[in-house]
């Protein structure tokens, strides 16, 4: 039984959370007080009685995890931090100001925020990743709490999470849906029909508990039931009122994302019982430490020069090798592990492999969740289908997440399957992600060396692999630094430079041979590190070859390797400037929608094969030296 | 009651569909015979008795629509076309060959394919768009049939579709899930648990019918029940066997996406009763024509020069005006219509507005479905959240769809809400879409003129709008062609050129004023058409200003406006080549993860405000003319 004293304590804290949400947003002049107020009772009980969290040690392995999926309720989260005694009231009042850690939506600039939220529907799938970490890797009893808004359940990604959480019996995952009925522009789709939410959740295999989200006893009982069950995840569907506690706001439209004016705030605070500054002692986690195996020396796979090996095959081999050496490497795949070759890791280390089925958003979100617990997730699918998770990748960058994404079957060179399976925009998409790394190997040995480096690389690291077999051109002793490149052919007489990566590097080599037979010597650069790109080597080549550059890529003409090379010659930030001969750069890339055909036919039709390269180089050399060629 | 004769006819056709799927893939040497075979009985009954479709007139308004969401079963679809008598057996045998209309996955290169499939989980949400068109716009009784694979139900987008179809009571939408239990790499998540599928579908408000997908009578009854119900959509959950009918394939792993060798094919065909060449008469649709209002003269909104108006506000005004003039314009929004200002259209033309709630994938998919029926869908949300639907945009381009997407709240200039709400990759992402158009207006009058042109523009057209108010700089008489630009400032003495668009154009103007005060005259170009970009005007400016270009954009440094400008100077396809003075191009763009702050603070911190532009121009001019400045 809940005592009157306990009820009073919760109520007082809830009112404080409401008041602080109002105060902070009023000072900021913007923000979401009403969406914070609807969840205040839920959070008061959670913070006081259920959350186990060492604020002095956010990385404590056995900390509960809390994700504010409805990130716009950031004022509530920050008010909770104040109540926990870890930020001052003064800092709380810096909400949304330049330089403040208290951004408009939570980000890991704050040490207690594991992941950025604010793109709705992402908190629960990330919570699945944390749930997997807790149950299967850490094997620690911490719980993962996720507070969702009701509107965000319209996102399919939320149902990917419902599906996967049940499949993996994540009894450590507790979702709380704040059903305040009002979205940004009016009533949500399901309004207060909490039964509809419950039916859906149950059909997906969850325990679903409907409560009055302002009844503190019901909240307490629901949390208690959630942590007691051990065969499925729990969702608490809490009927609430937006702006709860202030008559002029409560359950009224037109108040989404609006701060109160100072006078109205004053009145609201009075109505809520006046300012208070309670600090509560949040429960400490039990001691706990995951048992990881010891790292072993890495034995990368090696391939004989001249052998024909697909880089996706080498990815699979290297990942398995990495798995043997590094116990914190984890792999994910979206039901195509026999195409990406994640399957080898899955067979060798089933306890560190998570099948994500065809749910790319959930896959990337799970990777983000896993890396919160310091695991190194490698997630793979066809490169084309990583576009499905682009918003998750974007947000992962804001989360300062360290994840490794691998896209196979890039470009027209996949052949007969046709354009739906061809990634032609992935380089552009991944380059345009904050602090990302984009790698595109051309052979198996290079792939293995790059996979090794991905493991410890910070940020969003993307590796593009090729479906087709390609010749191994590098010896096993070669090293490939991120940010570097390889000059494959070079002489004092080079008249032009061909820059390729992945599949087109092999076309460049063929073109180089043919040009040589015609008396034209070219430099060939393997730009396997698309981002960061090797500016210095490109500048040197342009200097040495009269500015004649031909870039060739199996990608739409926008934003890919060609764009990376152009950027190397633009004045950007601290990049070294180029003072050589005027650039005569020809970009060979995909211009027209491809269809089906053989890889060779499609490379030719797209004008990115050796024929096209030869022609491009000749047009440059002709242009500069008149009739000499 | 089903007669024996009828059962025999269906069976014979089903066997032919299986045989033809085997034959075509064996000739091609690749493809998906077994995934075709599991659905053959379902499709035989559909084609013979339920589909109403005029193959001579694919645009017949009252045609039923059929979407093969499990696009890898393309051989089955093509076999159906042969059975319908619209492709020859010879063409069927051209499957997956270069130049054939019969690509590895279906695309609208074939006149009876409305939309490309092959990225799983997209057919049903597109079907929702067609269902909306049929029920609410065309108001015609045609049905929309969607055949899904079981694996693809793991995609959240499928549940967005379940949700929206029920919300809009799309009784004209019939989903058929081919539960053949086997995904690409083994058992699917739910296996043959058809009840789990049914429970989920029912919880989302659908009629769900579980059948044996090889029992022709059950199939017939299920289709009959599906077209009879009139208060909800129907899903038929058909338990099937992959490779059905051939003992060496049936329900066996390891056969996904594998063609049979000729000998094995011969044996399989014999087992299926041998080749046959039945042609069936598909039922014609009833006559029907939607009643559209007559177009009216367009009266675009106009704005006074000097007024402060957000371009998102102008989008809302222009869309409403377009709605008044063009009865085929339809609007969609993802629960932020009061931010994007779609709400004005929604209020004026509620019958042509569809609230998509927070489900951006479903929103874009619905737009694709609507344009199949020749409507002109404008779909808007925050630009950042369009990343959620990137795979749908990619596939829409393969569908040759004509859709208009509008992203508001672009860039750091949104201010306090923080990075999760800031689109900083949208220009890169949309530029890297086949045959796309990317527009980025800086003022209200320009926005209105561009919105007008979007309406008739083919392909994927993207408009980026700004949250903040910006001054109206153009008179109402100005015209803005797609592919053009505006030279805002120009003189014979220009020493450099500043290129901006949207919010940064205003910073460029401020910078231009300040530089003028310091005796440096600059050209200023408004590059509102980011793709296609105005190559000629850029070349002219580079010629006139010693190659000194400063490009400034509120976007990550990769793939956006700066990249578009660089591309204008690269040799790409048929672009005119540049022969002017060497380019000294400085790209100003966002380099570091922003936080919260005022728009001015954030523009300044990102080094993309007037201060940064002034400094960049000075560095260029200094570089060229020594101590003159």
Automatic annotation (TrEMBL), chains A, B:
SMART domains: Transket_pyr. Residues 309-472 form the Transketolase-like pyrimidine-binding domain. GO terms for cellular component: cytoplasm. GO terms for molecular function: metal ion binding; thiamine pyrophosphate binding; transketolase activity. Its cofactor is Mg(2+); Ca(2+); Mn(2+); thiamine diphosphate. InterPro entries: THDP-binding, Transketo_C/PFOR_II, Transketolase-like, Transketolase-like_Pyr-bd, Transketolase_BS, Transketolase_C, Transketolase_N. Its EC number is 2.2.1.1. It is an enzyme of class 2 (transferase). Keywords: Calcium, Magnesium, Metal-binding, Thiamine pyrophosphate, Transferase. Homodimer. PANTHER family: FI06132P-RELATED, TRANSKETOLASE. Belongs to the transketolase family. This is Transketolase. It comes from Trichormus variabilis (strain ATCC 29413 / PCC 7937).
């Amino acid at each position: 039984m809940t005592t009157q004293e306990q009820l009073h304590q919760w109520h007082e804290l809830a009112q404080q959370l409401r008041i602080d949400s109002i105060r902070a947003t009023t000072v900021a002049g913007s923000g979401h007080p009403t969406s914070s107020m609807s969840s205040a009772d839920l959070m008061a009980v959670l913070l006081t009685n259920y959350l186990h969290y060492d604020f002095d040690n956010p990385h404590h392995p056995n900390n509960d995890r809390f994700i504010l999926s409805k990130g716009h309720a950031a004022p509530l989260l920050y008010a909770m931090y104040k109540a926990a005694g870890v930020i001052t009231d003064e800092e709380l009042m810096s909400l949304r100001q330049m330089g403040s850690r208290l951004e408009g939506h939570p980000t890991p600039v704050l040490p207690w925020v594991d992941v950025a939220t604010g793109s709705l529907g992402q908190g629960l799938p990330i919570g699945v990743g944390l749930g997997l970490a807790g149950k299967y890797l850490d094997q620690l009893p911490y719980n993962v709490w996720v507070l969702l808004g009701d509107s965000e359940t319209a996102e399919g990604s939320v149902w990917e999470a419902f599906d996967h959480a049940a499949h993996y019996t994540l009894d450590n995952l507790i979702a709380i849906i704040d059903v305040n009925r009002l979205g940004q522009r009016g009533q949500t789709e399901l309004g207060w029909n909490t039964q509809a939410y419950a039916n859906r959740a149950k059909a997906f295999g969850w325990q679903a508990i409907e409560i009055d989200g302002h009844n503190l006893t019901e909240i307490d009982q629901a949390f208690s039931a959630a942590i007691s069950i051990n065969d499925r995840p729990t969702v608490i569907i809490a009927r609430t009122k937006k702006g709860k506690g202030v008559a002029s706001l409560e359950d009224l439209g037109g108040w989404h994302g609006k701060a109160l004016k100072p006078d109205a705030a004053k009145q609201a605070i009075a109505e809520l019982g006046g300012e208070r500054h309670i600090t509560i002692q949040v429960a400490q986690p039990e001691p706990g430490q995951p048992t990881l195996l010891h790292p072993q020396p890495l034995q990368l796979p090696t391939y004989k020069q001249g052998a024909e090996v697909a880089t996706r095959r080498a990815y699979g081999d290297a990942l398995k090798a990495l798995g043997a050496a590094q116990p914190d490497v984890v792999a994910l795949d979206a039901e195509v592990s026999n195409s990406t070759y994640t399957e080898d890791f899955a067979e060798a280390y089933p306890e560190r492999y998570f099948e994500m089925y065809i749910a790319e958003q959930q896959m990337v979100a799970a990777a983000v969740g896993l890396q919160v617990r310091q695991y190194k997730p490698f997630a793979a699918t066809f490169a084309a289908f990583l576009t499905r998770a682009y918003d998750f990748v974007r947000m992962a960058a804001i989360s300062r997440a360290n994840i490794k994404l691998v896209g196979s079957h890039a470009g027209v060179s996949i052949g007969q399957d046709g354009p739906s399976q061809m990634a032609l925009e992935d380089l552009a998409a991944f380059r345009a992600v904050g602090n990302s790394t984009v790698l595109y190997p051309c052979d198996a040995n290079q792939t293995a060396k790059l996979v090794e480096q991905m493991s410890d690389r910070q940020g969003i690291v993307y590796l593009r692999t090729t479906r087709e077999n390609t010749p191994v051109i590098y010896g096993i002793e070669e090293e490939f630094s991120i940010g570097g490149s390889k000059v494959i052919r070079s002489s004092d007489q080079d008249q032009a430079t061909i820059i390729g990566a992945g599949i087109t590097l092999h076309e460049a080599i063929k073109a180089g041979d043919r040009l040589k037979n015609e008396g034209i010597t070219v430099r060939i650069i393997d730009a396997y590190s698309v981002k960061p790109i090797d500016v210095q080597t490109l500048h040197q080549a342009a200097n040495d070859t009269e500015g004649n550059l031909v870039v060739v890529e199996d990608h739409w003409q926008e934003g890919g390797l060609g764009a990376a090379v152009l950027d190397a010659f633009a004045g950007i930030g601290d990049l070294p400037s180029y003072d050589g001969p005027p650039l005569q750069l020809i970009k060979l890339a995909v211009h027209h929608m491809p269809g089906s055909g053989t890889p060779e036919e499609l490379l030719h039709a797209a004008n990115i094969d050796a024929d096209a390269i030869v022609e491009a180089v000749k047009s440059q050399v002709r242009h500069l030296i008149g009739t000499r060629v």
